[in-house]
Amino acid sequence: MSAVTRLPAWQALQQRIDTALNTPIKSLFDDPARCGQYTLKVQNILLDISKQPIDNDTFGLLLQLAAEVDIESRREAMFNGQHINVTEDRAVLHTALRNRSNTPVYVDGEDVMPIIEHELKRMRVFVKAVRSGRWRGYSGKRITDVVNIGIGGSDLGPRMVTQALKPYADDRIRVHFVSNVDGVEIANVLRELNPERVLFVVASKTFTTSETMTNAQTARNWLMASSFDSRAVAKHFVAVSSNVAAVKAFGIKPENTFQMWDWVGGRFSLWSAIGLPIALYLGFKQFEELLQGAHEMDLHFRHEPLNSNAPVWLALTTLWNSTFLGRQSQAILPYDWPLARFSAYLQQAEMESNGKSVDSHGQPVPYGTGSIIWGQLGIDGQHAFYQYLHQGNAVVPADFIGSIESSTPVQGHHEKLMANFFAQTEALMCGIDADHVRTELAAKGLDEARIEQLIPHKVHEGNRPTNSLILDRLDPRTLGALIALYEHKIFVLGSIWDICSFDQWGVELGKTLAKGILPELEEGVLREGHDDSTASLMTYFIEQRRALKARE
Ligand code: G6Q
Q1: Ligand 1 centroid vs 155 CA: distance in angstroms?
Q2: Full-prediction pTM beyond 0.90?
């Protein structure tokens, strides 16, 4: 038995599983206090967890469990720069990147705030130069397009945020993203652009990531083909990295290189210079608003008691559904078009962080950890996969996210959108029983035999858990808070599961194998040691490629 499963609250929670599975969620509302009790308003975000299979006793025990694993001390350890990323022996300080309180944050005895402020200042100056047109391309033309070249944590955050805050952008700068090593992506992006007016941001903490380096080289060649002068690189390339030497070797000058540090994890890095495309697209003031919103959520998370702490609440709903009730996936369903990429963003944040099966001491964990995160815009999902959510034989807890005010109001649209938000969460919880279906079909004049035949197909069992998050509006500050809310949720879950949420060793093996396989594909010669299946697929690929080339 692991240490956490021996805790009194964990043991008591196990005794609550049957009750939770056999109590209709809607019956919990017999308690008239429930709505108020399970709703929190933090900054511009209303969080309602009342539609969860969590009664007062269970919630009390979940909070007790959070206290028994000493979330408070773990939280302080993170904010105070202790090396909570134990396997990489690093601090985890994305919170310092958005610390707007003018207070020091120490890593190994050194206050990191001055270097953060310094880098922010450099970003501000650079963003102003580009957006004002003072920074010009090699032929003297102003920059109109920014292309971020990066992948994973160096792509998903800025890509999601720039889409989410599009209504706050002016038309000075367009922004594009290239992450995939499939040449189709970069070719599609470059086809639309004029090399004299493009700024490439090569975003890579390590500056060794093969996809990013390949794309950066292709972009460089594309620029050279138009400028015929390697000095043009200085006008059209900047980098964000912690590997200054590799950036220099690529040909980007130190003055065009923005720093990040080893205590910033890739998937938590949009608050650093990795957010440069966001600032270039929206202006630095809006970027600062994003930081401010996240900082305010940090203050809430750090100082609010567990029983009124939004990230803790969100984490406990997932813990209960996944680890105790065995629901392995979770859907993220925004009813706010700008959040179209939010579930893709959270997919990395949660799954790379908490997709672990050993605890911080390297022992196998005997309970379910990180959920499978998936989703897309709710309205589109309704016409695609909601059938499964309502009547599939696995229960998928879902977070619904909507806003009071649309960031781009269009007459007659927003109420229709939100009517669906409320309808779906109501339907998922309340369902519709056989009597209801019978009455409905009888009213339509169907005969009894047909009615009985249809009933099992039309019954919705309901009892499907959802959280509702309602934002005042999706502005930069609120988005910052929303992202930070989920980041801290991930931290709380990792702390309870006692796993290291800040490493990602599981992505290494495939990368290493790909490095070995590349020369085999290029040279067309297989080395020993592949399993039979992979060897025969590679042989097929090599032969087909040879045949293709022979035909060219
Ligand atoms: C995130 C991961 C990973 C990383 C990418 C890109 O937490 O570490 O997604 O961001 O692999 O790495 P580089 O920024 O080093 O290119």
Answers
A1: 9
A2: yes
| Cβ contacts of 312 within 8 Å, gap of 6 or more | 63, 66, 71, 301, 306, 492
Q: Report the SS3 class of residue 314.
A: helix
So what's the pLDDT on residue 228?
84
> What are 418-433's pLDDT values in tens digits?
999 999 999 999 999 9
- What average pLDDT does range 295-308 have in this prediction? 98
- Where helices occur in 133-252 by DSSP H, the ranges are 156-164, 183-191, 210-227, 232-236, 244-250
Ligand 1 neighbourhood includes 209 CB (under 6 angstroms): yes
Residue 342 near residue 160, CB atoms below 8 Å: yes
Which residue, by CA, sits nearest to atom 9 of ligand 1?
152
Mutate to test the pocket of ligand 1, among 181, 205, 270 (most ligand atoms within 8 A of CB): 205
Ligand 1 centroid to 152 CA: how many Å?
5
For the segment 445-486, what is each residue's pLDDT rounded down to a tens digit? 999 999 999 999 999 999 999 999 999 999 999 999 999 999
Per-residue pLDDT tens over the stretch 171-193: 899 999 999 999 999 999 999 99
CA gyration radius for the chain? 26
Tokens representing 488 are 């801290």
Q: Which long-range contacts (CB under 8 A, 24 or more apart) does 89-93 make?
A: 90/262, 90/263, 90/502, 91/263, 92/263, 92/265, 92/268, 92/502, 93/263, 93/264
Contacts of 251 (CB under 8 A, 6+ apart): 220, 230, 233, 237
Which residue among 151, 159, 262, 354 is best mutated to probe the pocket of ligand 1, counting the most ligand atoms within 8 A of its Cβ? Answer: 151
Provide mean pLDDT across the span 155-171: 97
Let me know if 83 is exposed, middle or buried by CB neighbors in 10 A (0-12, 13-18, 19+). middle
Active-site annotation holds for 383: yes
Q: Which secondary-structure segment (H or E) carries 270? A: none
